[in-house]
Amino acid sequence: MVLQLYYDLYSQPSRSIYILLKLSNIPFKKCVIDLATREHLTREFAETKSKIQRVPFIHDGDFKLNESIAIVRYLSREYALDDKWYPKDSAKQAKADEFLEWNHLNIRLECATYFLVKFHIPFFTGKFSSKERIKKLLRNLERCLKDFERIFLSNGPFILGDQISYVDIHAATEIEQTRTACYDARDHFPKIRIWLDNVRSECNPAYDEAHVIINELTSIEVKPKL
C-alpha cells in the first residue's frame, strides 16, 4: 500500500513534508485536509485518522505517525531517502537535529506567532491586536532572524554547509509564511535572501508548487471590518 500524506499547504510543516516527498521520489497518495472547515477537529477524524488532529501526518499501511520531524526520521529509516536530506552519519545527523531542536523556540515560535497575530486571526475572525503588540512581536521576529543568520548561515550556502538538507526546507517554509503578514525577510536580511533563493532553486518546481497558497495570500490586505 502506498504511503498516504495528509496535509494542507496552508500549514508550514505540511509544506515542508510535501516538498521533501516530491524531491525524494517516494510514491505517496495526496490526502488534502481542509483546515479552514475544521474537518480535522471532528470525533470521527480523531477515531479514524489522527488522534493528535493536526497536519501533516502519514499512514504507511497500518502505521500512523504525526509530527513533521518524526516523519522525516521515519522516512530516512524506512525508505530510500537520499542521505543529503537527513544524514545518516552520526555527527552530521546531530547537527541537523541541533537546528531542528533550536528551531522550535526560535524560528517556529516567532514566525508562527507573528503570522497568527498579524494575519491568521484577523483574516478568520476580524479581531486585531494592538499596534504595540505587533511591534513587540516584530522585534522578537527580527531578533530571531538575526540570530539565525549569525549562527546558521555563516558556514556555507545552506544551514549544514555546502549541501541542502531537509532542515533548509523546514526553516524556509516557516520564514516564507510571514509574507502573508506583510513581512518579507528577504527585504531585511541579505544572507537570508540569498539562502532562500538557493533553497528555492534547489527545490523547484516542488517549492513553488507548495507555496502557491502563500503567494496568493500575500496579495490580501486584511483590514478591520467597518
From TrEMBL:
Lineage: Eukaryota, Metazoa, Ecdysozoa, Arthropoda, Hexapoda
PANTHER family per the UniProt record, alphabetical: GH16740P-RELATED, PTHR43917
Sequence similarity: Belongs to the GST superfamily. Theta family.
Signal sequence range: none
Biological processes per GO annotation: glutathione metabolic process
The keyword Cytoplasm appears for this protein: yes
Catalysed reactions, semicolon-separated: RX + glutathione = an S-substituted glutathione + a halide anion + H(+)
Start and end residues of each GST N-terminal domain: 1-83
Subcellular location: Cytoplasm
An example Gene Ontology CC term for this record: cytoplasm
Protein name: Uncharacterized protein
GO terms for MF: glutathione transferase activity
Cross-referenced PROSITE patterns: GST_CTER, GST_NTER
Location of the GST C-terminal domain: 89-226
Keywords: Cytoplasm
Pfam families: GST_C_3, GST_N
Top-level taxon of the source organism: Eukaryota
